[in-house]
Description:
alpha/beta, rod-shaped, 5-stranded mixed β-sheet, 8 helices
Amino acid sequence: GTTTEWDDLQVKHGNKAAPEKPKKAEPWSGSAVEARGDSRLDERTAEELDELDDDFEDDRALEAIRQQRLAELKKAAVTAQRFGSVRDIGRADFVREVTNAGPDVWVAVHLHQPAIGPCQIMGAALDTLASRFPATKFLRILSTDCIPGYPDMNVPTVLLYHAGKCLTTLVGLMPYGGRSTTPEQVAFTFNRHGPFCKAPGEEQKEVAGDDIKALIQRLAEAKAAELDAAAGTTPG
Protein backbone atom coordinates (compact mmCIF):
# COMPACT_ATOMS: atom_id res chain seq x y z
CA GLY A 1 0.00 0.00 0.00
CA THR A 2 1.07 3.70 0.03
CA THR A 3 3.32 5.23 2.79
CA THR A 4 3.53 8.73 4.33
CA GLU A 5 6.55 11.04 4.37
CA TRP A 6 6.96 10.30 8.10
CA ASP A 7 7.05 6.57 7.34
CA ASP A 8 9.73 7.18 4.73
CA LEU A 9 11.91 9.15 7.21
CA GLN A 10 11.58 6.39 9.83
CA VAL A 11 12.69 3.83 7.30
CA LYS A 12 15.58 6.07 6.14
CA HIS A 13 16.95 6.38 9.67
CA GLY A 14 16.56 2.67 10.40
CA ASN A 15 13.74 3.07 12.91
CA LYS A 16 11.25 1.05 10.86
CA ALA A 17 11.47 -1.80 8.40
CA ALA A 18 10.65 -1.00 4.84
CA PRO A 19 7.24 -2.36 3.77
CA GLU A 20 7.22 -5.31 1.39
CA LYS A 21 6.51 -4.53 -2.22
CA PRO A 22 3.33 -6.20 -3.53
CA LYS A 23 3.96 -9.20 -5.73
CA LYS A 24 2.87 -9.02 -9.33
CA ALA A 25 0.46 -11.70 -10.51
CA GLU A 26 2.06 -14.29 -12.74
CA PRO A 27 0.59 -14.62 -16.22
CA TRP A 28 -1.90 -17.54 -16.53
CA SER A 29 -0.47 -20.84 -17.65
CA GLY A 30 -2.28 -24.09 -18.38
CA SER A 31 0.49 -26.09 -16.72
CA ALA A 32 -1.23 -26.03 -13.32
CA VAL A 33 -4.44 -27.35 -14.80
CA GLU A 34 -2.63 -30.03 -16.68
CA ALA A 35 -0.83 -31.03 -13.48
CA ARG A 36 -4.26 -31.76 -11.97
CA GLY A 37 -5.21 -33.89 -14.93
CA ASP A 38 -7.92 -31.45 -16.08
CA SER A 39 -6.58 -30.79 -19.58
CA ARG A 40 -9.14 -30.39 -22.33
CA LEU A 41 -10.06 -33.28 -24.60
CA ASP A 42 -8.54 -31.55 -27.60
CA GLU A 43 -5.21 -31.54 -25.76
CA ARG A 44 -5.21 -35.30 -25.04
CA THR A 45 -2.90 -37.65 -26.84
CA ALA A 46 -4.24 -40.31 -29.18
CA GLU A 47 -3.58 -42.99 -26.55
CA GLU A 48 -5.47 -41.03 -23.88
CA LEU A 49 -8.40 -40.48 -26.20
CA ASP A 50 -8.49 -44.21 -26.97
CA GLU A 51 -8.70 -44.98 -23.24
CA LEU A 52 -11.54 -42.49 -22.81
CA ASP A 53 -13.36 -43.99 -25.77
CA ASP A 54 -13.05 -47.43 -24.15
CA ASP A 55 -14.68 -46.05 -20.98
CA PHE A 56 -17.55 -44.59 -23.00
CA GLU A 57 -17.95 -47.91 -24.84
CA ASP A 58 -18.23 -49.70 -21.48
CA ASP A 59 -20.92 -47.26 -20.35
CA ARG A 60 -22.85 -47.74 -23.58
CA ALA A 61 -22.58 -51.52 -23.30
CA LEU A 62 -23.85 -51.46 -19.71
CA GLU A 63 -26.74 -49.23 -20.70
CA ALA A 64 -27.62 -51.56 -23.57
CA ILE A 65 -27.63 -54.54 -21.20
CA ARG A 66 -29.79 -52.61 -18.71
CA GLN A 67 -32.32 -51.69 -21.41
CA GLN A 68 -32.44 -55.28 -22.66
CA ARG A 69 -33.06 -56.56 -19.14
CA LEU A 70 -35.84 -54.01 -18.58
CA ALA A 71 -37.49 -55.13 -21.82
CA GLU A 72 -37.30 -58.77 -20.71
CA LEU A 73 -38.86 -57.94 -17.35
CA LYS A 74 -41.68 -55.99 -19.00
CA LYS A 75 -42.35 -58.90 -21.34
CA ALA A 76 -42.36 -61.36 -18.43
CA ALA A 77 -44.79 -59.13 -16.52
CA VAL A 78 -47.17 -59.01 -19.50
CA THR A 79 -46.91 -62.79 -19.96
CA ALA A 80 -47.52 -63.39 -16.25
CA GLN A 81 -50.82 -61.49 -16.34
CA ARG A 82 -52.25 -62.97 -19.53
CA PHE A 83 -54.89 -65.16 -17.81
CA GLY A 84 -55.80 -65.05 -14.09
CA SER A 85 -59.18 -66.81 -13.96
CA VAL A 86 -60.90 -70.05 -15.01
CA ARG A 87 -62.67 -69.64 -18.36
CA ASP A 88 -65.49 -71.77 -19.72
CA ILE A 89 -65.09 -73.21 -23.21
CA GLY A 90 -67.09 -75.47 -25.48
CA ARG A 91 -66.14 -78.43 -27.62
CA ALA A 92 -65.69 -76.19 -30.67
CA ASP A 93 -63.10 -74.12 -28.77
CA PHE A 94 -60.97 -77.02 -27.58
CA VAL A 95 -58.41 -77.19 -30.38
CA ARG A 96 -57.88 -73.42 -30.47
CA GLU A 97 -57.75 -72.89 -26.70
CA VAL A 98 -55.96 -76.08 -25.66
CA THR A 99 -54.14 -77.93 -28.44
CA ASN A 100 -53.02 -74.73 -30.19
CA ALA A 101 -52.53 -72.62 -27.08
CA GLY A 102 -48.86 -72.05 -27.91
CA PRO A 103 -45.47 -73.54 -27.04
CA ASP A 104 -45.01 -71.37 -23.94
CA VAL A 105 -48.47 -71.91 -22.42
CA TRP A 106 -49.29 -74.46 -19.73
CA VAL A 107 -52.97 -75.46 -19.80
CA ALA A 108 -55.18 -77.18 -17.22
CA VAL A 109 -58.62 -78.27 -18.47
CA HIS A 110 -61.31 -79.25 -15.96
CA LEU A 111 -63.94 -81.65 -17.33
CA HIS A 112 -66.84 -81.22 -14.91
CA GLN A 113 -70.52 -81.47 -14.11
CA PRO A 114 -71.58 -78.50 -11.94
CA ALA A 115 -74.05 -80.48 -9.78
CA ILE A 116 -71.50 -83.10 -8.70
CA GLY A 117 -69.83 -82.46 -5.33
CA PRO A 118 -66.25 -83.45 -6.19
CA CYS A 119 -66.41 -81.16 -9.22
CA GLN A 120 -67.35 -78.28 -6.93
CA ILE A 121 -64.34 -79.04 -4.71
CA MET A 122 -62.03 -79.11 -7.73
CA GLY A 123 -63.65 -76.00 -9.18
CA ALA A 124 -63.01 -74.00 -6.00
CA ALA A 125 -59.37 -75.14 -5.90
CA LEU A 126 -58.81 -74.21 -9.55
CA ASP A 127 -60.38 -70.77 -9.05
CA THR A 128 -57.81 -70.12 -6.31
CA LEU A 129 -54.89 -71.39 -8.37
CA ALA A 130 -55.92 -69.44 -11.45
CA SER A 131 -55.71 -66.18 -9.52
CA ARG A 132 -52.38 -67.15 -7.92
CA PHE A 133 -50.74 -68.29 -11.16
CA PRO A 134 -52.05 -66.10 -14.00
CA ALA A 135 -49.39 -67.33 -16.43
CA THR A 136 -51.16 -70.70 -16.61
CA LYS A 137 -54.34 -71.08 -18.63
CA PHE A 138 -57.11 -72.69 -16.56
CA LEU A 139 -60.17 -73.82 -18.54
CA ARG A 140 -63.45 -75.54 -17.69
CA ILE A 141 -65.69 -77.56 -20.01
CA LEU A 142 -68.72 -79.75 -19.46
CA SER A 143 -67.51 -83.35 -19.52
CA THR A 144 -70.28 -84.53 -21.85
CA ASP A 145 -69.66 -81.63 -24.21
CA CYS A 146 -65.96 -82.43 -24.40
CA ILE A 147 -66.51 -86.20 -24.69
CA PRO A 148 -70.11 -87.27 -25.47
CA GLY A 149 -71.26 -89.97 -23.05
CA TYR A 150 -68.38 -89.35 -20.60
CA PRO A 151 -69.45 -91.05 -17.33
CA ASP A 152 -70.20 -88.88 -14.32
CA MET A 153 -68.27 -91.30 -12.10
CA ASN A 154 -65.06 -90.07 -13.77
CA VAL A 155 -65.50 -86.38 -12.97
CA PRO A 156 -63.79 -84.25 -12.04
CA THR A 157 -61.19 -85.02 -14.71
CA VAL A 158 -58.30 -82.65 -15.32
CA LEU A 159 -56.24 -82.70 -18.51
CA LEU A 160 -52.80 -81.09 -18.32
CA TYR A 161 -51.48 -79.82 -21.66
CA HIS A 162 -48.30 -78.18 -22.90
CA ALA A 163 -47.15 -77.43 -26.45
CA GLY A 164 -50.11 -79.27 -27.95
CA LYS A 165 -49.56 -82.51 -26.00
CA CYS A 166 -51.61 -83.98 -23.18
CA LEU A 167 -49.10 -84.64 -20.41
CA THR A 168 -51.46 -86.52 -18.11
CA THR A 169 -55.12 -87.20 -17.26
CA LEU A 170 -56.12 -86.93 -13.60
CA VAL A 171 -59.44 -88.61 -12.77
CA GLY A 172 -61.40 -87.89 -9.59
CA LEU A 173 -60.03 -86.40 -6.35
CA MET A 174 -57.91 -89.36 -5.32
CA PRO A 175 -54.72 -88.02 -6.99
CA TYR A 176 -54.90 -85.02 -4.63
CA GLY A 177 -56.18 -86.44 -1.35
CA GLY A 178 -59.88 -87.18 -1.71
CA ARG A 179 -62.69 -84.89 -0.55
CA SER A 180 -60.30 -82.97 1.70
CA THR A 181 -58.37 -81.75 -1.36
CA THR A 182 -56.92 -78.23 -1.03
CA PRO A 183 -55.56 -75.84 -3.67
CA GLU A 184 -52.05 -76.53 -2.37
CA GLN A 185 -52.45 -80.27 -2.91
CA VAL A 186 -53.77 -79.70 -6.43
CA ALA A 187 -50.79 -77.43 -7.19
CA PHE A 188 -48.38 -80.03 -5.82
CA THR A 189 -49.88 -82.72 -8.06
CA PHE A 190 -49.92 -80.48 -11.14
CA ASN A 191 -46.29 -79.48 -10.63
CA ARG A 192 -45.21 -83.10 -10.83
CA HIS A 193 -45.98 -82.82 -14.55
CA GLY A 194 -44.65 -79.32 -15.25
CA PRO A 195 -44.49 -75.77 -13.88
CA PHE A 196 -48.25 -75.24 -13.86
CA CYS A 197 -48.34 -73.58 -10.46
CA LYS A 198 -45.27 -71.45 -9.98
CA ALA A 199 -44.40 -67.78 -10.43
CA PRO A 200 -42.79 -66.85 -13.78
CA GLY A 201 -39.00 -66.81 -13.68
CA GLU A 202 -38.78 -68.82 -10.49
CA GLU A 203 -37.53 -72.35 -10.14
CA GLN A 204 -40.17 -74.81 -9.03
CA LYS A 205 -40.40 -74.68 -5.27
CA GLU A 206 -40.57 -77.83 -3.20
CA VAL A 207 -43.68 -78.21 -1.13
CA ALA A 208 -42.96 -77.87 2.58
CA GLY A 209 -42.46 -81.11 4.50
CA ASP A 210 -45.63 -80.65 6.51
CA ASP A 211 -47.70 -80.28 3.34
CA ILE A 212 -46.21 -83.48 1.92
CA LYS A 213 -46.94 -85.36 5.15
CA ALA A 214 -50.50 -84.04 5.14
CA LEU A 215 -51.00 -85.17 1.55
CA ILE A 216 -49.63 -88.66 2.29
CA GLN A 217 -51.85 -88.91 5.36
CA ARG A 218 -54.95 -87.95 3.40
CA LEU A 219 -54.15 -90.42 0.65
CA ALA A 220 -53.66 -93.17 3.22
CA GLU A 221 -56.97 -92.33 4.90
CA ALA A 222 -58.79 -92.29 1.59
CA LYS A 223 -57.30 -95.66 0.65
CA ALA A 224 -58.21 -97.12 4.04
CA ALA A 225 -61.77 -95.90 3.68
CA GLU A 226 -61.96 -97.47 0.23
CA LEU A 227 -60.71 -100.81 1.59
CA ASP A 228 -63.16 -100.68 4.48
CA ALA A 229 -66.03 -100.01 2.11
CA ALA A 230 -64.97 -102.92 -0.10
CA ALA A 231 -64.71 -105.22 2.93
CA GLY A 232 -68.19 -104.25 4.04
CA THR A 233 -69.67 -105.31 0.73
CA THR A 234 -67.84 -108.66 0.65
CA PRO A 235 -70.18 -111.65 1.29
CA GLY A 236 -69.51 -113.40 4.63
